[in-house]
Structures are given as structure tokens and as C-alpha cells.
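Support case: user asked for a sample of complex input and structure output to validate their parser. Sending the pair below.
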Amino acid sequence: MKKSLIALALLGFGVAHAQEQVVKIGQVSPLTGGQSHLGKDNENGARLALEEYNAKGLTIGGKKVKFEIMSEDDQADPKTATTVAQRLVDAGVKGVVGHLNSGTSIPASRLYHQAGLVQISPSATNPTLTNQGYPGVFRVMANDIHQGKVLGEFAVAKLGKKVAIIDDRTAYGQGLADQVDKAVKASGGTVTNREFTTDKAVDFKAQLTKIKAQNPDVIMYGGMDTQAGPMLKQIKELGITAKFLAGDGGCSSEMFKLAGDAIGANAYCSNPGVPLANMPGGKTFNERFKKRFNADIQVYAPYAYDAASAIVEAMKAANSVEPAKYLPALKKVSFDGVTGKVSFDDKGDIKGGAITLYQATGGKWEPMK
Amino acid sequence: METLLQQIVNGLVVGSVYSLVALGYTMVYGILGLINFAHGDVMMIGALVALQAILFAQKMWPSLGPLALVGIGLVVSIPTCMLLGYVVERTAYRRLRNAPRLAPLITAIGVSFLLQTLAMIIWGRGYHSFPQLISTVPMQPIEGVFVTPVQITTLLVSAGLMAALLLVVNKTPLGRAMRATAENHRVASLMGVDANKIIAITFIIGSALAAIAGVMVASNYGIAHYTMGFLPGLKAFTAAVLGGIGNIGGAMLGGIVLGLVESIGAGYIETWSFGFLNSSYQDIFAFIILGAVLIFRPTGLLGERVADRA
């Protein structure tokens, strides 16, 4: 009697299991190394989206669907990015949220394209990513042509005409710095220096000393907070009075820890999209995120959330979890995400991406009017 | 002129950080012939433990002055790192004493990853702001040239430690035993030297140096993070090789030379190459110098011809 009960239970379990379909979604960002706080933020954003869909219980193609996140670490390194991309392809993921950096997203996109996968980057802003002609590549953030223009024009109009530019020689940093360079010159300013560092450096005094000799009004940095924070400190230590300007990579809450007392009203940054408080779903997202992970949002978590949601929404619309089937639906997708309305243009860039400028005030980034 | 002077000051400061870390590297190498790649990570642990101690002390006794707090940080982190150094030596390296020399090298890299991951689990992925207890308010000893007290302290600490190390190694019975072990640990054992003990002590001293370096590096940049040991570790290794690995004075010299070359290189490479090269070639400059030194003086700037080690 007992045995048959167990058998029955096992059978019942087996049936329930067969009806449920597990769908793996890949997520890639640097989970170790200097940028791992940003990488974890992305992972959390994507995870939250998938968990919420699981809690709702979706049925796609007649089967109950359970989403599983497969999170990989690309160490912000282009070579590692292709290795982990291959791992995701081999594991049969149905879509990829990632990567965080432009320098990793671009080489990985080729592998996803060859495997016929869909890739949505939450935060890679280098224009090249969506200009390669891969139909499955999308991003939910405005690209650097736009951001660089806003930054450059703002610098010349509001902060001063002499601009020194430093970048970290990554696809993101260099790309953004080049766009700012163009915009500064186009709006009548001069670029006093182009200096360079790496995304692993901690000491920038040599470059800053060289910049100081040209006495610029503004120092713009194209790169991540990991370097921007210590750079602000060293600017102060060298007695430089120029204002500091960074792109989205320097627009994190971690900046205030990294820069200590050297960050104040002298520092500005820009971020594609609108401030979290002004996002349609921003406030509740912030609460849900805090409750689930007990951590502050760094920068890109809402975008990773929307990227994962876009994949699921397209799957729902196409009633299939296969990339080949849901890709046409993704091209037409339109829904209200946390960051705003999510829909893509022909290239895969988000439509109507706004850029917001922020100033450091009282220990956090305040959006500027 | 101001710019050149400032670049020299910058170079000296970065160089003293490299020297400080390089001292520990070179001492372990000098005795064991092992490149302890985990040294940078012991330094990181030292910084994070000191941070924890300082934060705790600040909470318990808010009236303490900055120097007392730095002292507490060091008093807690030095023994912790000594213990860590001993444990690493006992568990990871001692078993490989007679293994081919590649084995301990790979093990050292493994230990480095292990320590980093452990620190990531304990202290998380975020950055910790390290309280800047030694002032970072810039001073101008010469008009237009800026230097902060913490930077001067770093330079003095690394010079002081170098002198202390030289004394220990050359003037004490312990130092004599160390030098004997370095020459040949089997023969040293025959002469009544407990080679295992001496090697353990070498690691303990090396780890104490790493703890001090960690506190100085963290105060200098104001940040502690689980990956902070990697780059200084790599640069310090370069500095130690440049100065003559195994040579204590050489580590100091190598660090300072590397710092100066990097900072002057980044500052002037563009002018000197008529805009053909730029400051992203900072490291190339340093490695050209390293290459040149090693071609003409394979044992480094101050290295003597080392007796054939295993």
C-alpha cells in the first residue's frame, strides 16, 4: 500500500513536471573584479524581473513556463566575454540580458548572432553594438552619440569653454569621449587635452598634472565609477579647481564612497533615461528591489529589469519561447517598463531615449532642471 | 617647471607605494626563491581587517584621535596577516618544498584567487571608503607643487621598513639563519638551523609588511576593495625584478624608479614622440625600461649573481 502511494506520488510529480517548461535566460556582467558592484546590480535587476514573472505564472505555447536565470561573469574583459557567451549558447538559453560593458557586448554579439539568439544589453551604450546589422541585438538605453552630444554641449554652455578629456580606452569610454570631443568643438569650445588611462588603474596623477598645466575649466572622464571616484580625489589633492563631468559609468551611488569628501557640487554626470524617481515604475521598483536584495540600486538595475521583461513580453506576444519565433514580436514590442515605454527602432535601439544630467548634492546625484 | 616637479613628486609617491609592497615580495623570494603571488592579496586582507578594526574602534571610543585609530588598525591587522601568512605557508607551500618549482608558483596564484574570493564573500563586492586618518589636505612645499601628508608618510614608512629589514637580515642571529636557509636549506639544517621554522618566520614577517603596506595604500587612495591587491601586487613584482629580486635595497630602488618612469613617461611621452604616442602607453614605457635593464643586467639594478637556486 505504502509503496503504491509513493509510486502514485512520484507519478503525479512527474506529470506536473512534464507540463512545466524551464526556460533559461542568460545574464552576463562583471561579477568579479573592480566593476562587480555594477555587475551584481544588473544581475539583480534581471533576476527580479524573472522571479516576478514566475510568481505570476505564465503559460506560453500551452505549457506552464518557469524562467531560470543563468548568470555568467565576463570580468568586464572582451576575451572572457566571448567564452561565457559560448557557454550560454551551449547551455541553450533562449535569450540574453547583457553584457554590461560595450567592450564585452560587441564581441559577444557575434556569437549570439551566429547562434540565432536574442541579446538585449541594459547598459552598453557604444553606437557600434546596434550598427553591426545583427537582427537579434537590442538595447534599452540611449546610445553615446546622443549622450556625448548632451555632455559636450552642457560642458561648453554651463561649465566653461576649455575642456580636458580623459578616457579608459575601452569601447565605452573611448566612444563616449570621442563624441564629447566632437560636441565640444561643434559648440565653440576647445579640447585642451586628450589623456588616457585603463579600466584597472588607480593612480591618475601623471595625467592630471599634465592637464593642470593647460588650466581647463572642465575635466571630462569617459569610463566607470571605479576610476572616476579616485580621480576626483586626486584632482582635489593636486589643487585643481576644474569641474568634473562623467557619463553614465560614473553616475552610480558608489561614486560617493569612492570619492569621499572630494565629490560635491563640482561634479556632474549624465545618464540615459530619466531619474529613478521620475520613472513610471521607479518608486515601487526601488522598494521591491530593496526588499528582495537588501541593496541599493547602483545604476543599471532598472534597465536590466526592462531588458529581461522585454524578452518575456515578446515570448508572450509570439506565444513561443524560441528566439526565431519571438524575435519578430520583440521588434514590435511595446510595453510600460520601469524606465518608461519600451519599444525599439529598426536597428534595435530604444525609441525616444532621454538623457538626464545630474549634479552631486548632499551625498547623492540630484537631477538638474 | 612646476609641472615637471609635480610629476617627480607624483612618481616618488607612486614609487613608494610600489616599494612598500615590493619589500615583502623580495624578502620571501630572497629566502625561498618563491614568487609569492598571493602577497598582494595578503595586503588587501590587511587593509580590510584594519578598516574593520578602525570602524569598530570609532564606534566604541568616538573620542580617539586619528593616530590612535591608525595604531589600532595596525595592531589588529598585522597579527591577523601574520597568522594568515603562517597558515598559507603551512598548508599550501610547505608540502611543496621539494616539488618542482613551478608547483609552488601555480599554488601561489591559486592562493591569490582563494583570498580574493574569500574577501569578496566576507566584505562584499562594493567599495569601502577607508577613513583618511592621515590628512589628505594638499600642502605646497614649493609654490604650485602639491603633496599630501599621507603621501609623505608612505614614503617615510617604506624607507623605514627597508632599513629595519636590512638590519634584521644582516645583523641578527635570525637574519643569519635566514641567509643560511636561503643558500641551502638542507645544509642549514645540518648546521642546526630549523629551516621550516625560519621559512615560516620569513612568511610571517613578509605578511606583516603586507599588512602595513595595505593600510598605507588604503589610506593613500582612501578606498578598500577585495581586488585592491592585484595591481599593486603586479607592479611591485615588476619593481622587485627591476631592482634585483631578492635584494631588499633593490626593491626600494626598483619601486621608486618604476614610479618615476611611469609618471614622467605618462607626462611627456606625447611631447617626446611628437604626438605619435600618448599617455595610454604609460605602462609600455615602464616595461621598456624593465626590458632594457634585464638585457644588460639580468639580475636587476642591484642584484648580485645569485648562487644557483633550485
